[in-house]
Amino acid sequence: MDKITEIRIEEIFDEENNQHYYWVYYYKNDEVKIIGKSSVKPQCYRQIARYKK
Q: Could you tell me where the beta strands, DSSP code E, fall in the chain?
């Protein structure tokens, strides 16, 4: 199984290019994996699923 240790959303104010956006990425197996760039703030949700035999 993979080891995802962190998920981040960074708000970026690029004053030089007059842009405002969000970077979404995560750390998987000690490497940064970029999910994408968004012009709107992503919503964060937590969902718990329990499976029983």
A: 4-14, 19-28, 31-38
**CA distance linking residue 46 with residue 7, whole number of Å:** 12
CA–CA separation, 52 and 20 (whole Å):
45
Q: Where are the alpha helices (DSSP H) in 1-53?
A: none
Q: Exposure of 21 by Cβ count < 10 A (0-12 exposed, 13-18 middle, 19+ buried)? A: middle
Model confidence, pTM: 0.74
Contact (Cβ atoms closer than 8 angstroms) between residue 25 and residue 35: yes
What does the pLDDT look like over 23-36, one tens digit per residue? 999 999 989 999 99
